[in-house]
């Protein structure tokens, strides 16, 4: 993604006196325009990169500039490698491995063993249970569209099952709760929206039509984003005695309130939607909704509907 590409460009420019923008574009599979935007970003970060004109011109670091080895400590390098290893569990790319190898090579041999220990202390596994190849393909296609500012078109099925055709300007890929989303400006709705990748069908990228990136809105202003805590309602759940281990999978120990009959209460604020209904039903007979009353009635009605199907 963009961060790893920026770091890779910096390392390449340190190791080579000068490089061509088109060579960098081919290497990272982006447009030349994207490379020049990356160069502007690196310059803004305080690393002076100069574009040399002429037959033997190209892109290079300012004469005499050297990246201070002490700019990043071993702990900071280890944090970067840990982040790359974690993101690779959900979005695997060859560049991730290449960049991790480059980071490891910067560490002094004397510190190598301790560095390896630091980078293996934590791994955040974002990988989905089904390891979908289709999802991986969507990620790669949307990322290229973002890098090259290209429009995407797709069929979208929202949380209520409504199917619409959308054209959008993709800006950011977001991983939230093991689910991938694309933050994009929707042409039909004329505003930024969050689209879940698993609900996107018939994805196509318009290689001929590009857009100019827009300022990103505040997170609270994005349509399609889950409700804020202030919009949620308190739900009271009772877990059966034998379901204590299930409750611990989803709630902190401090959130589990023991009762005299050895069951467990949980009080939690949630937005009321299809996700909440499915979440509660996923516990089967091990959980009971106590409050609010209308939610208890909805769950009871759905249980009756399920029973009719199986009868």
Automatic annotation (TrEMBL):
Keywords: Transcription, Transcription regulation. Signal peptide: none annotated. Gene3D superfamilies: Winged helix-like DNA-binding domain superfamily/Winged helix DNA-binding domain. One of its GO terms (molecular function) is DNA-binding transcription factor activity. Transmembrane segments: none annotated. The keyword Protein biosynthesis does not apply. Residues 2-57 form the HTH deoR-type domain. It comes from the Bacteria. Pfam families: HTH_11, WCX, WYL. The keyword Transcription applies. InterPro entries: CBASS_pafABC_assoc_protein, DeoR_HTH, HTH_11, PafC-like, WCX_dom, WH-like_DNA-bd_sf, WH_DNA-bd_sf, WYL_dom. PANTHER family: PTHR34580, WYL DOMAIN-CONTAINING PROTEIN. This is Putative HTH-type transcriptional regulator YobV. It comes from Oceanobacillus sojae.
């Amino acid at each position: 993604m963009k961060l790893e590409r920026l770091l890779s460009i910096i390392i390449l420019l340190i190791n080579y006196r000068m490089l061509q923008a088109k060579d960098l574009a081919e290497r990272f599979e982006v447009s030349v325009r994207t490379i020049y935007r990356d160069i502007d970003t690196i310059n803004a970060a305080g690393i002076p990169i100069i574009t040399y004109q002429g037959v033997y011109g190209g892109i290079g670091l300012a004469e005499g500039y050297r990246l201070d080895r002490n700019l990043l400590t071993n702990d900071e390098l280890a944090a970067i490698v840990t982040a790359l290893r974690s993101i690779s569990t959900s979005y695997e790319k060859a560049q991730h491995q290449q960049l991790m190898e480059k980071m490891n090579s910067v560490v002094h041999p004397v510190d190598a063993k301790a560095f390896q220990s630091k980078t293996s202390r934590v791994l955040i596994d974002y990988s989905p249970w089904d390891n979908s190849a289709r999802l991986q393909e969507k990620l790669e296609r949307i990322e290229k569209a973002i890098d090259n500012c290209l429009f995407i078109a797709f069929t979208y099925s929202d949380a209520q099952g409504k199917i619409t055709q959308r054209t959008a300007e993709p800006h950011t890929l977001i991983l939230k709760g093991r689910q991938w989303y694309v933050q994009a400006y929707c042409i039909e709705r004329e505003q930024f929206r969050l689209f879940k990748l698993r609900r996107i069908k018939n994805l196509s990228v318009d290689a001929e039509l590009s857009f100019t990136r827009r300022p990103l809105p505040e997170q609270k202003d994005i349509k399609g984003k889950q409700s804020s805590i202030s919009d949620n309602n308190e739900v009271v759940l009772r877990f059966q005695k034998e379901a204590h281990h299930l409750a611990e999978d989803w709630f902190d120990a401090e959130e589990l309130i023991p009762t005299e009959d050895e069951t467990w209460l949980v009080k939690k604020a949630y937005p009321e939607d299809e996700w909440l209904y499915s979440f509660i039903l996923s516990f089967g007979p091990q959980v009971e909704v106590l409050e609010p009353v209308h939610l208890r009635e909805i769950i009871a009605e759905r249980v009756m509907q399920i029973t009719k199907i199986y009868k």
